[in-house]
Amino acid sequence: MTTSRAPETSAPPRARRGAVLGASTIAALGGLLFGYDTGVISAALLYIAPEFSLSDGMQQFVVASLLLGAIAGSLGAGPVVDRIGRKVTLIVLSAVFSAGALLSALAPDTSILVLARILLGLAIGGSSLVVPTYIAEIAPPTLRGRLVSMNQLMITIGIFASYLVGYAFAESGAWRWMVGLAVVPSLVMLVGLFTLAESPRWLLSRGRTEDARKALLRTHSAADADASLAEMSEAMREESKFSYRDLLSPKLRPAVLLGFAVAATNQLVGVNAVIYYAPTILKQAGLGDSAAILSSVGIGAANMIFTMIALLFIDKVGRRPLLLGGTSVVILVLFGLGALYLLPSVHGLGLLLTGGLMLYEAAFAASLGLAIWLINSEVFPTAVRGKAAGVGTVTHWGLDFLISISVLTLINALTPTGLFWIYGLLGVLGLVYLWRNLPETKNRTLEDIESSLRKGERA
Protein backbone atom coordinates (compact mmCIF):
# COMPACT_ATOMS: atom_id res chain seq x y z
CA MET A 1 0.00 0.00 0.00
CA THR A 2 1.27 3.46 -0.85
CA THR A 3 0.46 6.69 0.87
CA SER A 4 0.08 9.98 -0.90
CA ARG A 5 2.07 12.95 0.23
CA ALA A 6 0.14 16.06 1.09
CA PRO A 7 0.75 18.90 -1.32
CA GLU A 8 3.69 21.02 -0.24
CA THR A 9 4.59 24.51 -1.26
CA SER A 10 7.98 26.05 -0.93
CA ALA A 11 8.68 29.57 0.14
CA PRO A 12 8.76 32.29 -2.56
CA PRO A 13 12.13 32.94 -4.26
CA ARG A 14 12.98 36.00 -2.15
CA ALA A 15 12.26 34.09 1.07
CA ARG A 16 14.29 31.09 -0.10
CA ARG A 17 17.25 33.31 -0.92
CA GLY A 18 16.93 35.00 2.47
CA ALA A 19 16.75 31.62 4.22
CA VAL A 20 19.93 30.27 2.67
CA LEU A 21 21.72 33.57 3.25
CA GLY A 22 20.64 33.67 6.90
CA ALA A 23 21.63 30.06 7.54
CA SER A 24 24.99 30.57 5.85
CA THR A 25 25.67 33.71 7.88
CA ILE A 26 24.96 32.00 11.21
CA ALA A 27 27.15 29.03 10.31
CA ALA A 28 29.88 31.35 9.03
CA LEU A 29 30.18 32.94 12.47
CA GLY A 30 32.43 29.96 13.04
CA GLY A 31 34.71 31.53 10.44
CA LEU A 32 34.61 34.88 12.25
CA LEU A 33 35.68 33.16 15.47
CA PHE A 34 38.37 31.29 13.54
CA GLY A 35 39.74 34.61 12.27
CA TYR A 36 39.46 36.47 15.55
CA ASP A 37 41.09 33.80 17.71
CA THR A 38 43.97 33.29 15.28
CA GLY A 39 44.54 37.00 14.61
CA VAL A 40 44.24 38.44 18.12
CA ILE A 41 47.43 36.76 19.32
CA SER A 42 49.52 38.99 17.02
CA ALA A 43 48.81 42.07 19.16
CA ALA A 44 48.30 40.27 22.47
CA LEU A 45 51.71 38.59 22.16
CA LEU A 46 53.48 41.95 22.51
CA TYR A 47 52.06 42.19 26.06
CA ILE A 48 51.84 38.50 27.02
CA ALA A 49 55.55 38.00 26.37
CA PRO A 50 56.82 40.48 28.99
CA GLU A 51 54.10 39.61 31.54
CA PHE A 52 54.92 35.88 31.43
CA SER A 53 58.66 36.41 30.59
CA LEU A 54 58.48 34.42 27.35
CA SER A 55 61.53 33.68 25.20
CA ASP A 56 61.27 33.60 21.38
CA GLY A 57 60.78 29.84 21.58
CA MET A 58 57.99 30.11 24.14
CA GLN A 59 56.30 32.88 22.16
CA GLN A 60 56.24 30.55 19.16
CA PHE A 61 54.85 27.75 21.33
CA VAL A 62 52.04 29.93 22.71
CA VAL A 63 51.09 30.83 19.14
CA ALA A 64 51.45 27.28 17.86
CA SER A 65 49.54 25.61 20.71
CA LEU A 66 46.30 26.71 19.07
CA LEU A 67 47.38 24.82 15.95
CA LEU A 68 47.93 21.60 17.91
CA GLY A 69 44.29 21.80 18.95
CA ALA A 70 43.26 22.63 15.38
CA ILE A 71 44.99 19.53 14.04
CA ALA A 72 43.15 17.36 16.58
CA GLY A 73 39.89 19.18 15.88
CA SER A 74 40.08 18.72 12.13
CA LEU A 75 40.98 15.02 12.53
CA GLY A 76 38.16 14.37 14.95
CA ALA A 77 35.51 16.46 13.18
CA GLY A 78 35.38 14.27 10.06
CA PRO A 79 33.93 11.14 11.67
CA VAL A 80 31.84 13.20 14.11
CA VAL A 81 30.18 15.35 11.45
CA ASP A 82 29.32 12.28 9.37
CA ARG A 83 27.86 10.51 12.42
CA ILE A 84 25.88 13.19 14.33
CA GLY A 85 25.29 15.72 11.57
CA ARG A 86 26.50 19.17 10.58
CA LYS A 87 24.15 21.22 12.79
CA VAL A 88 24.77 19.37 16.07
CA THR A 89 28.52 19.44 15.49
CA LEU A 90 28.41 23.21 14.98
CA ILE A 91 26.45 23.65 18.22
CA VAL A 92 29.11 21.74 20.15
CA LEU A 93 31.90 23.74 18.50
CA SER A 94 30.31 27.09 19.37
CA ALA A 95 30.14 26.05 23.04
CA VAL A 96 33.85 25.10 22.94
CA PHE A 97 34.67 28.50 21.40
CA SER A 98 32.98 30.21 24.37
CA ALA A 99 34.82 28.10 26.94
CA GLY A 100 38.18 28.66 25.28
CA ALA A 101 37.75 32.44 25.10
CA LEU A 102 36.83 32.72 28.78
CA LEU A 103 39.71 30.50 29.89
CA SER A 104 42.17 32.52 27.79
CA ALA A 105 41.06 35.77 29.43
CA LEU A 106 41.39 34.31 32.93
CA ALA A 107 44.68 32.44 32.41
CA PRO A 108 46.98 33.02 35.43
CA ASP A 109 50.10 31.60 33.77
CA THR A 110 51.54 30.25 30.54
CA SER A 111 50.37 26.65 31.05
CA ILE A 112 46.69 27.63 31.44
CA LEU A 113 46.95 30.01 28.48
CA VAL A 114 48.36 27.19 26.34
CA LEU A 115 45.55 24.89 27.50
CA ALA A 116 42.95 27.52 26.59
CA ARG A 117 44.49 28.00 23.15
CA ILE A 118 44.47 24.24 22.54
CA LEU A 119 40.76 24.27 23.41
CA LEU A 120 40.18 27.13 20.96
CA GLY A 121 42.17 25.20 18.39
CA LEU A 122 39.84 22.21 18.72
CA ALA A 123 36.90 24.48 17.88
CA ILE A 124 38.75 26.22 15.05
CA GLY A 125 39.92 22.97 13.47
CA GLY A 126 36.46 21.48 13.63
CA SER A 127 34.70 24.56 12.31
CA SER A 128 37.17 24.90 9.43
CA LEU A 129 35.84 21.57 8.16
CA VAL A 130 32.17 21.72 9.17
CA VAL A 131 31.22 25.30 8.26
CA PRO A 132 32.09 25.19 4.53
CA THR A 133 30.71 21.65 4.27
CA TYR A 134 27.37 22.68 5.75
CA ILE A 135 27.05 25.78 3.59
CA ALA A 136 27.98 23.87 0.42
CA GLU A 137 25.29 21.32 1.15
CA ILE A 138 22.45 23.80 1.69
CA ALA A 139 23.31 26.24 -1.13
CA PRO A 140 21.97 26.08 -4.72
CA PRO A 141 24.80 25.60 -7.30
CA THR A 142 24.43 29.16 -8.63
CA LEU A 143 25.09 30.64 -5.17
CA ARG A 144 27.38 28.00 -3.71
CA GLY A 145 30.70 29.67 -4.50
CA ARG A 146 29.64 32.98 -3.00
CA LEU A 147 28.03 31.47 0.08
CA VAL A 148 30.81 28.99 0.88
CA SER A 149 33.31 31.79 0.41
CA MET A 150 31.35 33.76 3.01
CA ASN A 151 33.22 31.57 5.50
CA GLN A 152 36.51 33.03 4.30
CA LEU A 153 35.04 36.54 4.35
CA MET A 154 34.05 36.02 7.97
CA ILE A 155 37.55 34.76 8.74
CA THR A 156 39.02 37.98 7.34
CA ILE A 157 36.44 40.08 9.22
CA GLY A 158 37.44 38.23 12.38
CA ILE A 159 41.13 38.89 11.75
CA PHE A 160 40.45 42.57 11.01
CA ALA A 161 38.29 42.89 14.13
CA SER A 162 41.03 41.31 16.23
CA TYR A 163 43.54 43.85 14.91
CA LEU A 164 41.17 46.71 15.69
CA VAL A 165 40.59 45.39 19.20
CA GLY A 166 44.34 44.95 19.62
CA TYR A 167 44.93 48.56 18.63
CA ALA A 168 42.11 49.78 20.90
CA PHE A 169 43.74 48.10 23.91
CA ALA A 170 47.35 48.74 22.84
CA GLU A 171 47.88 51.75 25.06
CA SER A 172 46.65 49.93 28.17
CA GLY A 173 48.17 46.59 27.16
CA ALA A 174 44.94 44.84 28.25
CA TRP A 175 45.55 41.60 26.39
CA ARG A 176 42.98 39.71 28.50
CA TRP A 177 40.21 41.88 27.04
CA MET A 178 41.64 41.28 23.58
CA VAL A 179 41.31 37.50 23.83
CA GLY A 180 38.17 37.42 26.01
CA LEU A 181 35.89 39.41 23.71
CA ALA A 182 35.63 36.39 21.40
CA VAL A 183 32.96 35.03 23.73
CA VAL A 184 30.39 37.49 22.32
CA PRO A 185 30.15 36.15 18.73
CA SER A 186 30.46 32.56 20.00
CA LEU A 187 27.29 32.98 22.09
CA VAL A 188 25.45 34.63 19.18
CA MET A 189 26.40 31.67 17.00
CA LEU A 190 25.27 29.17 19.64
CA VAL A 191 21.80 30.72 19.89
CA GLY A 192 21.40 31.16 16.12
CA LEU A 193 22.28 27.54 15.30
CA PHE A 194 19.15 26.26 17.02
CA THR A 195 17.04 27.94 14.32
CA LEU A 196 18.74 26.19 11.39
CA ALA A 197 17.80 23.03 9.51
CA GLU A 198 20.16 20.09 9.20
CA SER A 199 22.03 19.56 5.93
CA PRO A 200 19.69 17.83 3.41
CA ARG A 201 22.55 15.76 2.05
CA TRP A 202 23.38 14.42 5.51
CA LEU A 203 19.71 13.69 6.23
CA LEU A 204 19.43 11.77 2.98
CA SER A 205 22.60 9.82 3.77
CA ARG A 206 20.90 8.69 7.01
CA GLY A 207 17.77 7.54 5.17
CA ARG A 208 15.64 10.51 6.28
CA THR A 209 14.29 11.36 2.83
CA GLU A 210 11.25 13.38 3.93
CA ASP A 211 13.32 15.42 6.38
CA ALA A 212 15.83 16.07 3.60
CA ARG A 213 13.07 17.30 1.30
CA LYS A 214 11.68 19.63 3.98
CA ALA A 215 15.15 21.04 4.54
CA LEU A 216 15.58 21.61 0.80
CA LEU A 217 12.23 23.41 0.57
CA ARG A 218 13.66 26.15 2.79
CA THR A 219 16.13 27.11 0.08
CA HIS A 220 14.81 25.48 -3.15
CA SER A 221 11.59 25.51 -5.12
CA ALA A 222 9.53 22.30 -4.89
CA ALA A 223 10.64 21.18 -8.36
CA ASP A 224 14.30 21.94 -7.66
CA ALA A 225 14.09 20.16 -4.31
CA ASP A 226 12.79 16.99 -5.94
CA ALA A 227 15.43 17.20 -8.67
CA SER A 228 18.17 17.68 -6.09
CA LEU A 229 16.93 14.73 -4.06
CA ALA A 230 16.95 12.51 -7.15
CA GLU A 231 20.46 13.60 -8.09
CA MET A 232 21.81 13.11 -4.57
CA SER A 233 20.12 9.70 -4.27
CA GLU A 234 21.65 8.53 -7.54
CA ALA A 235 25.10 9.69 -6.45
CA MET A 236 24.77 7.95 -3.09
CA ARG A 237 23.69 4.68 -4.71
CA GLU A 238 26.99 4.69 -6.57
CA GLU A 239 28.99 5.22 -3.39
CA SER A 240 29.99 2.32 -1.18
CA LYS A 241 30.90 2.59 2.48
CA PHE A 242 34.33 4.22 2.63
CA SER A 243 36.97 4.24 5.33
CA TYR A 244 39.96 6.56 5.52
CA ARG A 245 42.03 3.89 3.77
CA ASP A 246 39.69 4.05 0.80
CA LEU A 247 40.45 7.75 0.26
CA LEU A 248 43.50 6.69 -1.77
CA SER A 249 41.44 4.53 -4.10
CA PRO A 250 41.67 5.45 -7.81
CA LYS A 251 38.15 6.88 -7.69
CA LEU A 252 38.88 9.33 -4.88
CA ARG A 253 42.61 9.94 -5.31
CA PRO A 254 42.34 12.94 -7.72
CA ALA A 255 40.03 14.83 -5.35
CA VAL A 256 42.10 13.99 -2.27
CA LEU A 257 45.36 15.08 -3.92
CA LEU A 258 43.76 18.30 -5.11
CA GLY A 259 42.41 19.05 -1.63
CA PHE A 260 45.87 18.40 -0.21
CA ALA A 261 47.58 20.61 -2.80
CA VAL A 262 45.25 23.58 -2.26
CA ALA A 263 45.65 23.35 1.52
CA ALA A 264 49.43 22.95 1.31
CA THR A 265 49.90 25.88 -1.06
CA ASN A 266 47.62 28.03 1.10
CA GLN A 267 49.98 27.56 4.04
CA LEU A 268 53.38 27.25 2.37
CA VAL A 269 53.24 30.79 0.99
CA GLY A 270 53.46 31.87 4.64
CA VAL A 271 50.17 33.66 5.18
CA ASN A 272 49.97 32.81 8.86
CA ALA A 273 53.51 33.99 9.44
CA VAL A 274 52.05 37.39 8.50
CA ILE A 275 48.82 36.99 10.48
CA TYR A 276 50.53 35.86 13.68
CA TYR A 277 53.74 37.86 13.55
CA ALA A 278 53.09 41.01 11.48
CA PRO A 279 53.43 43.38 14.50
CA THR A 280 56.59 41.54 15.62
CA ILE A 281 58.13 41.70 12.11
CA LEU A 282 57.24 45.39 11.76
CA LYS A 283 58.55 46.16 15.24
CA GLN A 284 61.87 44.55 14.28
CA ALA A 285 61.89 46.82 11.21
CA GLY A 286 61.82 49.91 13.43
CA LEU A 287 58.18 50.63 14.25
CA GLY A 288 56.94 51.10 17.82
CA ASP A 289 54.32 48.85 19.43
CA SER A 290 51.30 51.01 18.58
CA ALA A 291 52.55 51.80 15.08
CA ALA A 292 53.23 48.13 14.39
CA ILE A 293 49.74 47.13 15.55
CA LEU A 294 48.17 49.98 13.55
CA SER A 295 50.05 48.82 10.45
CA SER A 296 48.67 45.33 10.99
CA VAL A 297 45.17 46.87 10.95
CA GLY A 298 45.89 48.04 7.40
CA ILE A 299 47.07 44.56 6.45
CA GLY A 300 43.89 43.06 7.92
CA ALA A 301 41.77 45.63 6.07
CA ALA A 302 43.36 44.67 2.73
CA ASN A 303 42.65 41.03 3.49
CA MET A 304 38.99 41.73 4.28
CA ILE A 305 38.29 44.17 1.42
CA PHE A 306 39.75 41.96 -1.30
CA THR A 307 37.91 38.95 0.05
CA MET A 308 34.70 40.97 -0.43
CA ILE A 309 35.72 41.91 -3.96
CA ALA A 310 36.56 38.31 -4.82
CA LEU A 311 33.17 37.18 -3.52
CA LEU A 312 31.50 39.37 -6.13
CA PHE A 313 33.35 37.59 -8.92
CA ILE A 314 33.84 34.00 -7.71
CA ASP A 315 30.61 32.76 -9.32
CA LYS A 316 31.10 34.91 -12.45
CA VAL A 317 34.80 34.70 -13.27
CA GLY A 318 35.26 31.21 -11.82
CA ARG A 319 37.67 29.50 -9.47
CA ARG A 320 40.64 28.87 -11.78
CA PRO A 321 41.28 32.46 -12.94
CA LEU A 322 41.10 33.91 -9.43
CA LEU A 323 43.15 31.16 -7.82
CA LEU A 324 45.92 30.96 -10.41
CA GLY A 325 46.14 34.72 -11.02
CA GLY A 326 46.10 35.68 -7.34
CA THR A 327 48.67 33.03 -6.41
CA SER A 328 51.01 34.37 -9.09
CA VAL A 329 50.82 37.85 -7.54
CA VAL A 330 51.43 36.40 -4.06
CA ILE A 331 54.63 34.74 -5.28
CA LEU A 332 55.93 37.92 -6.93
CA VAL A 333 55.28 39.97 -3.79
CA LEU A 334 57.10 37.43 -1.62
CA PHE A 335 60.22 37.75 -3.72
CA GLY A 336 59.86 41.54 -3.62
CA LEU A 337 59.54 41.58 0.18
CA GLY A 338 62.70 39.51 0.48
CA ALA A 339 64.54 41.88 -1.83
CA LEU A 340 63.64 44.89 0.32
CA TYR A 341 65.92 43.62 3.07
CA LEU A 342 68.87 43.48 0.64
CA LEU A 343 68.74 47.17 -0.17
CA PRO A 344 71.33 49.14 1.79
CA SER A 345 70.01 51.46 4.53
CA VAL A 346 66.42 51.60 3.31
CA HIS A 347 64.71 54.64 4.82
CA GLY A 348 61.19 53.85 5.99
CA LEU A 349 61.60 50.07 5.72
CA GLY A 350 58.63 49.58 8.04
CA LEU A 351 56.31 51.55 5.75
CA LEU A 352 57.56 49.73 2.64
CA LEU A 353 57.03 46.39 4.36
CA THR A 354 53.54 47.42 5.41
CA GLY A 355 52.66 48.30 1.81
CA GLY A 356 54.11 45.04 0.52
CA LEU A 357 52.31 42.98 3.13
CA MET A 358 49.02 44.72 2.30
CA LEU A 359 49.48 43.80 -1.39
CA TYR A 360 50.39 40.25 -0.38
CA GLU A 361 47.26 39.89 1.76
CA ALA A 362 45.05 41.39 -0.96
CA ALA A 363 46.27 38.89 -3.57
CA PHE A 364 46.09 35.98 -1.13
CA ALA A 365 42.56 36.89 -0.04
CA ALA A 366 41.28 36.86 -3.62
CA SER A 367 42.83 33.48 -4.42
CA LEU A 368 44.22 30.95 -1.96
CA GLY A 369 42.27 32.42 0.94
CA LEU A 370 38.96 31.61 -0.74
CA ALA A 371 40.09 28.45 -2.47
CA ILE A 372 41.04 26.26 0.45
CA TRP A 373 37.56 26.13 1.96
CA LEU A 374 35.63 26.38 -1.30
CA ILE A 375 37.53 23.72 -3.23
CA ASN A 376 37.56 21.32 -0.29
CA SER A 377 33.79 21.69 0.05
CA GLU A 378 33.16 21.04 -3.66
CA VAL A 379 35.41 18.24 -4.88
CA PHE A 380 34.52 15.31 -2.61
CA PRO A 381 31.61 12.83 -2.95
CA THR A 382 28.78 13.34 -0.48
CA ALA A 383 29.20 10.02 1.33
CA VAL A 384 32.80 10.74 2.32
CA ARG A 385 32.86 14.53 2.37
CA GLY A 386 33.46 14.75 6.11
CA LYS A 387 36.39 12.30 6.07
CA ALA A 388 37.88 13.53 2.78
CA ALA A 389 37.69 17.22 3.59
CA GLY A 390 39.59 16.37 6.75
CA VAL A 391 42.65 15.63 4.61
CA GLY A 392 42.72 19.23 3.44
CA THR A 393 42.04 20.72 6.85
CA VAL A 394 44.61 18.51 8.61
CA THR A 395 47.16 19.50 5.97
CA HIS A 396 46.26 23.15 6.53
CA TRP A 397 46.62 22.99 10.29
CA GLY A 398 49.67 20.74 10.30
CA LEU A 399 51.61 23.09 8.04
CA ASP A 400 50.22 26.09 9.92
CA PHE A 401 51.69 24.61 13.11
CA LEU A 402 55.12 24.09 11.51
CA ILE A 403 55.16 27.63 10.15
CA SER A 404 53.96 29.30 13.35
CA ILE A 405 56.53 27.52 15.50
CA SER A 406 59.43 28.33 13.16
CA VAL A 407 59.00 31.94 11.95
CA LEU A 408 61.16 33.71 14.52
CA THR A 409 63.74 30.92 14.45
CA LEU A 410 64.02 31.05 10.65
CA ILE A 411 64.31 34.84 10.64
CA ASN A 412 67.24 34.56 13.05
CA ALA A 413 68.85 31.72 11.05
CA LEU A 414 68.15 32.74 7.43
CA THR A 415 67.33 36.48 7.67
CA PRO A 416 63.91 37.82 6.58
CA THR A 417 65.05 37.63 2.94
CA GLY A 418 65.60 33.90 3.18
CA LEU A 419 62.25 33.40 4.89
CA PHE A 420 60.22 35.27 2.26
CA TRP A 421 62.07 33.65 -0.64
CA ILE A 422 61.51 30.14 0.73
CA TYR A 423 57.79 30.88 0.88
CA GLY A 424 57.94 32.20 -2.69
CA LEU A 425 59.65 29.07 -4.04
CA LEU A 426 57.15 26.79 -2.31
CA GLY A 427 54.36 28.88 -3.84
CA VAL A 428 55.77 28.27 -7.32
CA LEU A 429 55.57 24.50 -6.79
CA GLY A 430 51.96 24.75 -5.64
CA LEU A 431 51.00 27.01 -8.54
CA VAL A 432 52.33 24.54 -11.11
CA TYR A 433 50.38 21.65 -9.60
CA LEU A 434 47.14 23.62 -9.42
CA TRP A 435 47.48 24.87 -12.99
CA ARG A 436 47.75 21.28 -14.17
CA ASN A 437 45.05 19.68 -12.02
CA LEU A 438 42.43 22.16 -10.82
CA PRO A 439 39.04 21.85 -12.58
CA GLU A 440 36.66 24.77 -12.97
CA THR A 441 33.75 24.20 -10.59
CA LYS A 442 31.66 27.31 -11.25
CA ASN A 443 27.90 26.68 -11.56
CA ARG A 444 28.30 22.90 -11.46
CA THR A 445 26.67 20.37 -9.18
CA LEU A 446 28.84 18.56 -6.65
CA GLU A 447 28.19 15.29 -8.46
CA ASP A 448 29.28 16.74 -11.82
CA ILE A 449 32.51 18.05 -10.27
CA GLU A 450 33.25 14.59 -8.89
CA SER A 451 32.82 13.09 -12.36
CA SER A 452 35.13 15.63 -14.04
CA LEU A 453 37.90 14.97 -11.50
CA ARG A 454 37.83 11.27 -12.27
CA LYS A 455 38.13 12.09 -15.98
CA GLY A 456 41.00 14.51 -15.43
CA GLU A 457 39.16 17.56 -16.81
CA ARG A 458 40.47 21.03 -15.91
CA ALA A 459 37.76 23.26 -17.34
From TrEMBL:
Keywords: Membrane, Transmembrane, Transmembrane helix, Transport. InterPro entries: MFS_dom (IPR020846), MFS_sugar_transport-like (IPR005828), MFS_trans_sf (IPR036259), Myo-inositol_Transporter (IPR050814), Sugar/inositol_transpt (IPR003663), Sugar_transporter_CS (IPR005829). It is a multi-pass membrane protein. It is found in: Cell membrane. The chain crosses the membrane at residues 20-49, 61-81, 88-106, 112-135, 147-169, 175-196, 255-278, 290-314, 321-343, 349-376, 388-411, 417-435. The keyword Transport applies. Its main location: membrane. GO terms for molecular function: transmembrane transporter activity. It holds the Pfam family Sugar_tr. Residues 23-442 form the Major facilitator superfamily (MFS) profile domain. The keyword Transport applies. GO terms for cellular component: plasma membrane. Belongs to the major facilitator superfamily. Sugar transporter (TC 2.A.1.1) family. NCBIfam families: SP. This is Sugar porter family MFS transporter. It comes from Saccharopolyspora karakumensis.
